Amino acid sequence: MRLSSFVAVLVVGGIAASPVCAQSAQSVDGILDRAVGAWAKVHTVRGAFEQTVTNPLTGSSATARGDFSQERPNRLAIRFSRPDSGAIVADGKYLWVYLPSTAPGQVIKRAATDRGSVPIDVTGQFLDAPKSKYDITAAGTRTVSGHPAHGLALVAKQGASSPVLRATVWVDDDDSFIREFESTEQSGITRHVRLTTLEVNEPVAREAFVFSVPKGARVIDQTK
Q1: HSE on the CB side for 108, CA within 13 Å?
Q2: For residue 125, what pLDDT is reported?
Q3: How much is the pTM?
């Protein structure tokens, strides 16, 4: 197991914003606050996803599908079903990264606190003190996996600690969970993720967060 101005209206040179613009700003605030509040109540989450990663430097793009389980705050298991059987697992102590399609026969082992390139919180990475990290504006509406949703465009504030430069997240109108997002990382890589199923606060077996090194794979220990 990842941002234009937060207010939609500015008061410039003492000129007050119009009521229509003020309402738009409140809408952005309201959507964000509901999303943060809904995520704060989540202890476990599991579901399925589709992901497309695009690298502008190589001009390559790859799509993957899989399942994920999460137990907040520091356990996450992302297991790919296509195109390979790769996995990203945070077991509470270590973060294991096994991606045979890009690094065959290799497993990266990191400290569980290392979130620089692989966030341990898939959608929560956008909801952890977002107003201090991102400038946020409205990004329209659309339907995501059958759910009406509002979009928020996030741009990282200068000097903010975030692996994400910018992102658009789509927040479900009914339950305020993020159902889809597209983010651009510091490296320039773009990641588009859509959650095709989502179950919140359902039991997740502890075994889900156990990673077994594949036979013959070399472990690169980056915890030292």
Answers
A1: 18
A2: 87
A3: 0.80
